[in-house]
């Protein structure tokens, strides 16, 4: 029992089964645990609580698993507007015939609405942090503030925009880093080595170093890009990032399906500051060929995290789904049913994905002092029963709606499936109205060309 | 408006968007449709209804898609008891070290409980028909009757049981075919060509022909099985089924990942009565190597349907999930993002899976005269919005809980997520209690050996 003069915490979660460790390919859970949270941080993860905690709010999580909030290491949140608008097409057509012409239509309000809808979707499936790479990022930041999520935001640019592209990306990163009580961090966000010049990559790396942020960029997205780079300039996209100083500055690499063996040492050299994002659902839909070499990257100590990319390619922003598809696929790809255990899958969701964003120890773990980003998952549904293996239930059985409660920075954003920061009806009404004309391509214009690289 | 003397139907679904056709790789939906159901069959799918239908019960499905109930073409329903009990192991260890020793513990009540829990799980995710292949099938039949689902039931046997195995399988098929107002159909269910003798396969085929049912068996589950068969007897497992008359009798083939090019003409010859079940989630988890050659089978006119196998390998009984994984994987495997469209995915879920069970035209379509198995799916969630492409939403975005209402044979089994035929609390209580000791392997016995084949 807490004594009358114990410090009173903001929030306590009692009676939960807590995911307390995922190292060494095994997940360890502690039953009957009490988690206390104050001022946005975990005060204690008490696996042998004595009596009731002293807290202003207490959530009884009996029958639920408490686990670190999920991390989406790379997305284009506002592209929810284009969900389903470019289906069953190859990646070249997807860009040139659909997405880049449609993106001509995207304005500031669209980015706010698209990002806010993405935030609602992510809160509903247990994502507490996302790394976003898009345009009009002040609007994305506004949606982050409205929603209460944590995010790393990068203002995307092409060198075709001229010097203003890089400059605006740097200005955004400088202005917004640390905002929203620290929930917003930033990156410099060149689109990709095939749309951004080496000079601009050098500039991005220098600015990132100066500001203490990362570069967030697409690179070696598939083996075709790698082969084109080798053919046109004799080096891989990862080598381009190395030679321009981007890796040394620290980099979030999306998506790296085209990472070849020679790239691994380059990435390993900077593994304390470089990570690779992996969202296999969309890669399969695009028939991209070989996938991110997770086993080789992991062996070299390079962090890999889950991502959903945008809803225009991945359809959902569901990290649980991408974790599950990754876990299934990795066994098949490596031809070993004992590799990539449920514990490994959960480790990549927590510390692994946190490391990709340079936030290891800050998020992705239920650990004293870390940011209090935690979700409560109900495993009592038929589809999870019986609970012979909790980690397997989380990796292979759980449904998005089993996430009952989502907490970021100690603030409850969803309580028992009720969103507390976003009004469903008004958001959907305005979002649907904008989505009606966002797919118009009759103007004949485009923002970029994919075939030239 | 229905006139006062119109015939009064049992049930009408009004204001739905109906999936009315999936041929030629495209899904067609009709808005504002009224579906009327009487005596377990669709009376009309009225895409231009005039006025309110005359029906004893009317369900307003505004904002929902009505689509054919999903079909699980191969499972071992009662194995829900073993969900999560044999994770991250190769298939040989899975059988020999876990499943077959644990199955020593399975008794009649376990099969009832395991199947009823499976039924509850399937109703919740929109499955209306399942093909089951297990033991104590009278108990599975009882669970089918309790739940209200439709099922094709086969009593599994090994030749190691002696003549009683086949005889019992035949007796079950004869006794139970057509029961439960026709919702139960049956199969003869030899386990596999590597555990059942050719003589018993011949006997199974003869009995199936006599009874007008199919043989339901595992064959060519992976390329290893095919290669072992080729090495030990010079012919493939599919060829064994052909030579023993099983294909001619009609056969549900699970899982066919080891089907080789030379097998295709054998299957194509009997394509009016043979189909292949496909449940990729479990295959990936087992790292089974090449997957069912869906493109080749489809080109040869051989039906392919979705399945979940048992929850001990697949973890869930979610056909939507296996449809989604199949759709993603097929593009990647065939190296063509334009193949296996959302429409194709939905076609395989409906007429394709129905054909595997020999029930094309009877289930799997919203069509006048067909069995009234229909589900209502809510696409208003954030993760499905905006609805630029309804088929893509169903194939790639929808969550199990978006299935709001499940109807079998015109009877509502789940209404707005409330199960009407199964009591959740009492089922879970007894199921969990049995599941506690079902995994005991201390007895040192087993029901079969996998390594010898």
What is the element layout, followed by pairings?
The structure is a homodimer of 453-residue chains.
Chain A: E1 9-21, E2 28-38, E3 41-46, E4 55-60, E5 64-68, E6 70-75, H1 91-102, H2 108-124, E7 127-134, H3 137-147, E8 150-157, H4 163-176, E9 184-190, H5 198-211, E10 214-219, H6 223-233, H7 237-243, H8 246-249, E11 251-255, H9 263-269, E12 274-278, H10 280-285, H11 294-299, E13 304-306, H12 311-314, H13 319-334, H14 342-356, E14 374-378, H15 390-397, E15 403-408, E16 411-415, E17 418-419, H16 424-438
Parallel strand pairs in A: 1-4, 1-5, 6-7, 7-8, 8-9, 9-10, 10-11, 11-12, 12-13
Antiparallel strand pairs in A: 1-2, 2-3, 5-14, 14-15, 15-16, 16-17
Helix pairs in contact in A: 2-3, 2-16, 4-5, 13-14, 14-15
Characterization of the model:
The structure is a homodimer of 453-residue chains. Chain A has 453 residues and is an alpha/beta fold. The first copy, chain A, has helices spanning 91-102, 108-124, 137-147, 163-176, 198-211, 223-233, 237-243, 246-249, 263-269, 280-285, 294-299, 311-314, 319-334, 342-356, 390-397, 424-438; strands at residues 9-21, 28-38, 41-46, 55-60, 64-68, 70-75, 127-134, 150-157, 184-190, 214-219, 251-255, 274-278, 304-306, 374-378, 403-408, 411-415, 418-419. Chain A has a domain at 70-356: Metal-dependent hydrolases (TIM Barrel). The radius of gyration of chain A is 21 Å and the shape is globular. At the A-B interface, helix 2, helix 10, helix 13, helix 15 and helix 16 of A face helix 2, helix 10, helix 13, helix 15 and helix 16 of B.
